[in-house]
Amino acid sequence: MTTHASAAQIVRELLEGPVTRSALVRWRRKQFLGKDGFGFYFGLFDSFAAARAWLPPNPEFNNEALATEYVEVRTQQVFAYDYPVMWWLERAFRHGARSVLDIGGSVGVHCLAYRRYIEMPPEVTWRVVEVPAIVSIGRKLAAERGVPELFFTDDLEGALSGGAEVWISAGALQYMEDARPGDLLKRSKAMPMHLLLNKLPLYDGDDFVTTQNIGEGCFAPLHVFNRDRLIRSVEALGYTLRDRWLVHERSLYLPGYPERSFPFFSGLYFAAEP
Question: For a disulfide at 138, which of 56, 107, 210, 236, Cβ 3.0-4.6 Å?
Fold first, then answer.
């Protein structure tokens, strides 16, 4: 029996043939740049600078309108891909962790949603690094909901220098130009005991840069990482990969480059070696 997913894959493979590929790419380019292109990926670039030069001028993630779904939905419920993170985070708390650095944590979605499902130590501090527009919304939301342990900053380097026992980043590092996990760890004065990475675009091919329509007239460049290379770069710093999981809710289809497309994103949990 042919599933919907496999049928879609068959259609894509037909359209990616030598006769129809150029027409497909032209159509998807137009679609990508329009309102119906939300969530779509397009293009292959040498760098973030090259991707930004191709994209229309826009604020990328520094747009308050992008926070609406996070405030109204994602601060109040969790999704399937959140459960591995919550499981390891709760174990980290049981073993004494009391500080969290959440890189790209939007308006505090992980702290606000996870506290409904797991027990957090009363003395925990949870610091979110975000762009200025989202930091402003997050601070107001934390005050309104009475969560004094939740802090926000737009200073990544300052947050790295402050140190934390747990680092979380879910679907954010790929949009940051200089934020490969191994590089961030090297820039930190005190590396974390626990590293939780979720919703990462990992696959078996070479690293590359593409772009995504992120909604509200905004676009962003992003990295796609070679899975083994990223894992080895973290393990080389004294970490052990303790868990990995598939994020079936995220996939990447790159028109014109079927060999760089893949059906799911990934999650990883690393623990510092004792």
Answer: 107
Which stretch of DSSP H or E encloses residue 224? Answer: strand 218-226
Assess contact for 211 and 45: CB atoms under 8 A: yes
Question: What is the gyration radius of the CA atoms in the chain, in angstroms?
Answer: 19
The single-letter DSSP state of residue 258 is G
- Region for 86 from its dihedrals, namely left if φ exceeds 0, alpha if ψ lies in -120 to 50, beta otherwise: alpha
Residue by residue, DSSP assigns 44-110 as EESSHHHHHHHSPS--TT--GGGGHHIIIIITT---GGGHHHHHHHHHHHHTT--EEEEET-TTTHH
Cβ atoms 271, 193 nearer than 8 A: yes
Backbone angles phi, psi at 267, to 5 degrees: -125, 145
Query: Cβ(45)–Cβ(220) under 8 Å?
Result: no
Closest by CA to 129, choosing from 165, 176, 82, is 176
- Provide block-wise average pLDDT over 10 residues at a time, the chain (274 residues): 54 61 89 94 98 97 95 94 98 97 97 96 97 97 96 96 95 95 94 97 98 97 98 98 98 95 98 87
Per the CB < 8 A criterion, the answer to whether 154 and 129 are in contact is yes
Token pair for 145: 């909901």
CA distances from 66 to 60, 101, 113, 150, 211 (A): 10, 22, 18, 20, 17
